[in-house]
Amino acid sequence: MIPGDGRQQFSYCAFFKEDKAIGSMVTRRRRQHPHDFGRASTFVETIDLPALEALSSRFLRSINYYGLVEVEFKLDPRDGQFKLLDINARTWGYHTLGTHAGVDFPSLLYRDQLSGAVEQCRGRPGVAWVRLLTDVPTGLRDVAAGRLRFGDFWRSLRSYHIEAVFNKEDPVPGIVECALIPYLMLKRGF
After folding, report:
1. pLDDT for the residue 189
2. I want to staple 12 with a disulfide (CB 3.0 to 4.6 A). Which of 56, 127, 139, 163 is the partner?
3. For the chain, what is the radius of gyration of the CA atoms?
C-alpha cells in the first residue's frame, strides 16, 4: 500500500500518436472520494510536472500506444518515486478539464480519425475542475477530520474553472444529478 491521499495521486492525460503526445496535460487530485482509496476525483487541477510527462511518454512509446489515455501514478513518500496505478485507455471523468486548459482531447481524436490536421498542444497549469455534488461533502469531511483547513476548502470552491455537470447553458444534467442525491446518500454515504 502506498501511503497518502489524493494529493499524492497524479495523472498524465494525452492523445498519443506515432510515439508522441499530440495533446497532453498533467493533473493532480486535490480531493477524492473516498479519502484514502478514491473511486472518483472530486477536485482536480492541472500542474506542470515534466518528470511525469517524460516517464509516461517513455512507457507509451514502448508499447506503441495510439489514442486517448490517462496514466495514473501515486507519489510514494517513502522513496519519492512515482508508482504506476493504472492506465485508462479511454476518456476519464474529468476530461473536460482539458478543454479549459487548452487541450480538447475528444476533438483531437475525432479530427485525427477523420484524417484532419491536428496540432500539438499542452495543457496550461493552474486550471481546476470540480464535481460539486461529491466535492462539497468530501471537502467538509476533510475539514471535520482536520485534513483540510476550511479557508483552503472555501478558496478552492471559489477558484475552479469548470464544474463536471452543472452548466447554466444546459441546466438539465445538473437538475438530474440533484435528483440522484437520495441514491448517492444510500449507496455512497452522500
Report:
1. 65
2. 56
3. 17
> Which residue in 74, 94, 90 sits closest to 82, CA to CA?
74
Give the distance from CA 77 to its chain's centroid.
21
- The conformation of residue 124, written as its DSSP 8-state character, comes to P
Please tell me the predicted confidence (pLDDT) of residue 140: 94
At residue 188, the pLDDT reads 67
**What are the φ/ψ torsions at residue 31 (nearest 5 degrees)?**
-145, 150
Beta bridge partners of 12: 26, 71
Considering its fold, how many domains does the chain have in total? 1
Contact 33, 42 (CB under 8 A): yes
Residues 158 and 84: their CA atoms lie apart, in Å, by 32
CA distance 19 to 38: 31
Closest residue by Cα to residue 147 from 28, 13, 4: 4
Q: Could you tell me the sign of the dihedral formed by the alpha carbons of 48, 51, 53, 56, in that order?
A: negative
Number of Cβ atoms within 10 Å of the Cβ of 116: 10
The range of the structural domain enclosing residue 79 comes to 1-190
By the 8 A CB rule, do 65 and 16 touch? yes
CATH number at residue 160: 3.30.470.20
Backbone phi, psi, residue 174, to 5° = -65, -40
